[in-house]
Amino acid sequence: MPCKLQSTPKNDGFRMPGEFEPHKGCWMIWPERTDNWRLGAKPAQKAFVKVAETIAKYEDVTMCVSQNQFLAAREALDPKVRVIEMSSDDSWMRDVGPSFVINDQGQVRGVDWRFNAWGGLVDGLYFPWDKDDQVAKKVCELEGVDYYSLEDFILEGGSIHTDGDGTAIATEACLLDESRNPHMTKEEIEATLKAYMGVEKVLWLPHGIYLDETNEHVDNIVHYCAPGVLTLAWTDDESDPQYTMSKAAYDYLSNERDAKGRKLEIHKLHIPNEVRITKEESEGVDSVDGTLPRVEGDRQAASYANFYIANKAVILPLFGDEVHDKLAMETLQNIFPDRTVEGIYAREIILGGGNIHCITQQQPLG
Ligand code: KQY
């Protein structure tokens, strides 16, 4: 039976692997809340089906679905995708699922961080979030893996990245925000990441993507492709507020070394042309007190860095911007010559506030 562990991954010889290391499979959650997804979440569900079925070409996929939507999701998804009943408050498996860690003997364990809907009562995106906060435990129980449970540390999986080789990356904007762990200093937060991700060094970017409602998650601005190799969301437009944010990240990373003393190879991924919510899109979302409203004209935090690395594939969000979509596809194909880059039109996902990386969580191969 899976049990809750009292030690830390680092003490036990476990580390969080890089996303590019072999996977057992991928976990997702079916979208259905009508105050975040337009038109009863039907367009988003179609996009999630496309993501799940594309990933399922390369590794096992499990879709967690509420009791209400179980039959509809089962019907909509290819039989290759496993569908199981699980409660949640929304559909961001990256943030509510466990972060998995492995050891040299190939044992897999989970890390169950606390979740407060990206900011709790300070600037959280909806209320309540108690079902989301139980998802990581449930996934570990289902998979039969032991897990570490942090009772008093708020963290979302999308706010950390690792190279699996001693280095983690996070943004100060998110992890040091008063809405996460205001009772802790930066040093204490860094020590917690080191202990639970099994790393020796944390790289701190000042910012993520402009207007990112997660307080600027790191997974929307950079992505580790291999130890020492990163993509970085970029813009050449100096008048765009994103320019200063990406330039600060570029300058910082160019002057840093990772835990193993490597200089970092940085590949720029130019962001797409602005994605703004249309009147029709805004009108399709239920307005509910306590949930972040979807307002016509609001700019979305669209970025190609929010891709998912599957076994033998990279699943890349596309935005219908011919030039930048093509450039991102080519850049990633060059970085990953041995993987198929699968582009998926992801407007319906970014309208909900995140993208393909945010709705997926890989489980490493034990
Ligand atoms: O980007 C993510 N990791 C999640 C975004 C959540 C948005 C909720 N509306």
Protein described:
By secondary structure, the protein is α/β, with parallel strands linked by helices. It has a single domain, classed as L-arginine/glycine Amidinotransferase, Chain A. The protein has eleven helices and 17 strands. The strands form five sheets. It has a four-stranded mixed sheet, with helices on one face. The longest helix is centred in the first third of the chain and has 14 residues. The chain is globular and about 50 Å long. The two termini are 17 Å apart. The model has no long low-confidence stretch (mean pLDDT 98). 6-aminohexanamide binds next to helix 3.
Write the layout of secondary structure elements.
Layout: E1 4-5, E2 23-29, H1 42-55, E3 60-65, H2 70-76, E4 82-85, H3 93-96, E5 99-102, E6 108-114, H4 120-123, H5 135-143, E7 147-154, E8 161-162, E9 167-171, H6 172-175, H7 186-197, E10 201-205, E11 222-226, E12 229-234, H8 241-254, E13 265-270, H9 279-283, E14 308-310, E15 313-318, H10 322-335, E16 340-345, H11 347-350, E17 361-364
Parallel strand pairs: 1-7, 2-3, 3-4, 6-7, 9-10, 12-13, 15-16
Antiparallel strand pairs: 2-17, 5-6, 8-9, 11-12, 14-15
The structure holds 6-aminohexanamide.
6-aminohexanamide binds next to helix 3.
